[in-house]
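Hi,

Apologies if this is the wrong queue. I'm a grad student, and the batch job for Glutathione S-transferase LANCL1 from Oncorhynchus kisutch produced an output file that my downstream script rejects. I'm not sure whether the problem is my script or the file. Here is the sequence I used:
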Amino acid sequence: KMDQRAWKNPYADYDGNPASVQELFDSQGKLTAEFAGRLSNAISQLLMHMENGLKSADPRDCTGYTGWAGIALLYLHLHGVFGEPSFLQKALDYVGHSLTCPTRRRDVTFLCGDAGPLAVAAVVYHRVQRAQESDECLSRLLQLHQSVVMGSGASGLPDELLYGRMGYLYALTFINQQFGHDKIPIQYIQQICEAVLISGEGQSQRFRCQDQSPLMYEWYQEQYVGPAHGLAGIYYFLMQPGYVAGDERVHRLVRPSVDHVCRLRFPTGNYPPCIGDNRDLLVHWCHGAPGIIYMLLQAYKGKRFSETGRCSFLSELTQ
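Support response: The file is valid. Your script probably expects a header line. Output copied below for reference.
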């Protein structure tokens, strides 16, 4: 049924007894050879199913979310895990296909726009030592930068992760992580964060919530909370070290805004999909506690969270 969003879990909860998982992990906590083999076989079978399904996939979908760039990213990751050369060749094949069918829409994000295929292609070409093609993809990726920084207003670019500024910023972050150094200068990232801060201050004033949350964001007239469209995804990046120029602005704007999100928490530990929505329904990455944990952990790691004790989750972490 369309309204059924989960499968029943047939497995018993872990009872804390190491003997119950001895077939899965050895005494050092590493996968046993038998279990690792089962996982490897399962991966092979799933890849065969996927490849068969791709025969009827949309040939024009280049995106990381639903298209060829996402398949290339999967094979790039598999190559990183297993070191199998055929996986890198698969990534090369699929990323080449993604570059033949750009979206040419206003979407500029890693998942839904042209930034994703360009970023993945830059990394794949770098891995196969095709430096010129890698640099060309990076150049095309950075050509989108100015429109991301400047786009604003009711008809402009949103700030969130799936379709907005943070989705483009993730593409830049992905490049730096994969290349292992600051291939993208920090100034490019800081300019995007500056635009997001200005946007958030303006929306906070418009919603008249400056005293509770100096920053506020909306997507499709909803003040989403979760990472995909909302506050958690935006604050996660704003709290990355060095992304916002000057710690003073992080403490003055971001920290109390994170506090505000914490105060939205339901007694169950979950969070609402949107501010003002009192339904405790969604428990997944896009909307709900699982995705918000990323934001809270970043606040905890960076020691950029207030010490008022208003977020019980962080208090529990330190106990």
